[in-house]
Amino acid sequence: MAFDSKVPKGPLENKWTEYKDHCKLVNPANKRKLEIIVIGTGLAGASAAASLGEMGYKVKTFCFQDSPRRAHSIAAQGGINAAKNYQNDGDSVFRLFYDTLKGGDYRSRDSNVYRLAEVSANIIDQCVAQGVPFAREYGGLLSNRSFGGVQVQRTFYAAGQTGQQLLLGAYSALERQVALGNVKVYDRHEMLEVVNIDGKARGIIARNLITGELERHFGYAVLICSGGYGNVYFLSTNAMGSNVTAAWKAHRHGAYFANPCMTQIHPTCIPVTGDHQSKLTLMSESLRNDGRIWVPKQKDDKRKAGQIPEEERDYYLERRYPAFGNLVPRDVASRAAKERCDAGYGVGTTKQAVYLDFAEAINRYGTIECGKHGIENPSADVIRHHGLEVVKEKYGNLFDMYEKITGENPYEIPMRIYPAIHYTMGGLWVDYELMTSVEGLYCLGEANFSDHGANRLGASALMQGLADGYFVIPYTLGNFLAGEIYNKPIATDHPAFAKAEESVRERIDLLMGIQGKHSVDHFHKRLGKIMWEYCGMARNEAGLKKAIQEIRELRAEFWKDLRVPGSDKEYNPELDKAGRVADFLELGELMCLDALDRAESCGGHFREESQTPEGEALRHDDKFMYVSAWEYKGVGEWELHKEPLVYEKIQPTQRNYK
Question: Which residue ranges traverse the bilayer (predicted)?
Fold first, then answer.
């Protein structure tokens, strides 16, 4: 296939302006005649639905939760990036573009990334207008902090609840459109099939999760905004319901899946405590602004953290990467933590953890506060008292969450953290307009591949979701729909809808009819262990080949020995999970195939055969400067297409954070 990514001609900094100046428009009267389907109500889905409703389109939005407010975007903690340069510390649109491209190890399309940086400042203005309570300085100016992979302060935040506040802003805008009659929300509905007619996406089959009924819905366009697929690993920081099903159904109907193996390992998670766990908890990357990461210099040191003197502590990130220190990108910090633990320097009962220590920050802030209050020669207790107040104000809810989960007071004892599966940079392939390889089928936010390459910088997920929904899709979707105003709506008794519904019914009957011995979670856990072991933080050719074989065997066993209790005519979460895990079992194989094909280390994708003498990731730009776009041919069968990556403004170099 010859890729048409529809990137406008001209200089990088002018592409988006040129596109907006020349894209087709739909007049207000015609917008009222056009129905659009939006799958997912997180930041990308809610902002898109609200924006399109505001423009006058008729929008149907679907979520499997009981409310759009329960989308996983609400769990994001640390912040959202924007090139405002409030600190006057050298930030700019170009620097945000460069940091994002470099952080992704030069494996993303530069035109999409530049547009993301360009519209980022508008997001903050939009959210402030919606009433999002960003943190502010004493004088009222919006506050900023730093995240990994950058040397400026560009991250806006609302304590450790930024995702929650941003989603409430988008939800409020969405509900306004619901009240006006422009948007209809279908909660407790899951999309189980895309309906393609004459080569265009024209609707979906959705299942009412309360009654079990299958429903047909027509739309002139379908927007997939369903988030990432990190739960293929079973243990991840994602919500338990997060899944790949919507994107996977689109993939099976012709939408290419790009860079599926590119998953992000977040370095700042609460470590696993045992086999009983069903998910992991993220501690915000913002903690790395003030927390220092270390391990004992002595192997298998059984002393408590407070008993280890300063000179016997190894602040390994500061030692290895002095220019960025504790604020190296996530993939670098994660690999470094794994290396220390594998070498025998891990802490805690499992020895699969490192310390995140705030003692120095508490002392530093306390000294500053004492100076502000005119306290001369303060005692250590007075300094600590004032320092604790500052840290509580900045990170209090995160510290409280850590204590509730672990039973340890992080103000007194350093936190223990370890890397875990978090975000997925891979997703449906989209062009500059966010359209997939199927006409009329779009993909926004984490569900697409476009902006983060091989590794996402912290605080960029919220930025991309809102950029896509508020400022990109309103233009690009109109460019497509301008040609659809002559086409009448298609009735849902069309044979394509009937055929799609029948295929969904057959699959449900098949899942219910197996009546084997094992639960859905039994298979999901086993898949997760295979993925983490062979396609997780480190990968090699032999392990990936073994994983592919084991996944195929596990998938065959799943379809022979799964047991789903209850009925499909009622609320049945086990049936819902069964369908999602069936899709994960196909996705897992593709992820390993993609990882096997990409025999280089880049970003969060670390191939053991491809590393520098210092153990850093080693890219091979001469062989792998492309997007891997996989076309579905059948279960276990795909064809690889390659979109070349060409950079106009910058020359890719080996990443260096030292």
Answer: none
